[in-house]
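Practice problem: predict the structure.
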Amino acid sequence: MDKQLYGRALRIIRILAYLPVFYFIWQDLRYFNELAAINISLILLSAWYLHFQVRQSDIEKPYYQLWLSFIEGIFAFAVMLCLFIKDSLLEDREPEKMLAVGCVMLLTRVVSRTLYSLSMLREGKSLWPNSFWSKAATLSINATMLIYVLSLEHYQQISMGISILLMFASSVSFCYRYYRDSAHRKPLSVSNQLTMSRIVLTPVFLWVFFYDNNLNYQDNSMVFKILALTMIVAFMVTDFLDGYLARKWGEVSTLGKYLDPFSDKISNMTVFLCFLASDYAPVWMVALIYFREASVETLRTLAAGEGITMPARRSGKWKTAIQGTGILIILVGALDPLDDLIPYWMGIWEYLPYSVMGIITFVTVASGIDYFVAGKDVLKKYV
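Answer:
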């Protein structure tokens, strides 16, 4: 009981520490900004202690734990919203879009997590302890508030971008744990989870690529160029790991055989459409790549109708590797520092994207021909 009262009191004090922040934010004197920063620092330290040193699920009743988390999340959202409104009222600059996205993501996370937790409690299930991603997201949100209050402009977008990704990761983690319950869905293997991550993160890449609302990717912020590059590397790593782990752990499945190439097509075609919008690729190249991908997928569907599973061919693996490498080359080439590091880089860059996309298109079409040659027995049944 002592531990329960201690943990609950610390949690309530932490929630109450938000209240003075609302007042301090709206004061123009730097003295009040420093007071707000002190309060948020205390909130950040207590969050670290409660999440990593105390297991709330062991010492707190589920419904208290749920509603204290909800109130704390709403207070955190209110602070973020105040920061956004104050930023919007400044006449010398436009409202920061990243901060607006962070507010929406935070509110969505708080509400959806509360609804899911309530449904679990009503079903008589116990609440899960917070995952690592959830703990990291909470700390990152508090650290981001601190950076905005201190007006550290060079770090604001970076910290908010990290917080958004962590909130997204914690939401995916929570939903997965909820739906993998035998009462809801069959659990996905680790390899299939990695494959699914590429599909889920593809819309995020689209947003990162066009964050500045400008079709010219060269004008995008350096932070988001690096973030886009990091996501492509993550796509390539998960593409390797899902097949490797499936074979190593004996998790090879029919779902994985279809899901893996499908996720590659979704992610890579999205990138190629982004390149088309930024004039890194002509229409006919992207059209040929799409025609190949759609045709091979149709062939796979016809084969499935005959009870035949068409596994990925070596040419398809080479195609995927060359597409990923080409995408990396173009995204690295678009980084601003290369203009200063490599002499005559602008002259090289003028021809580089089209040249790389030409190689990708050739290999992609050749791979498609190989699939149709290998699937000639299936075609004979329909042609």
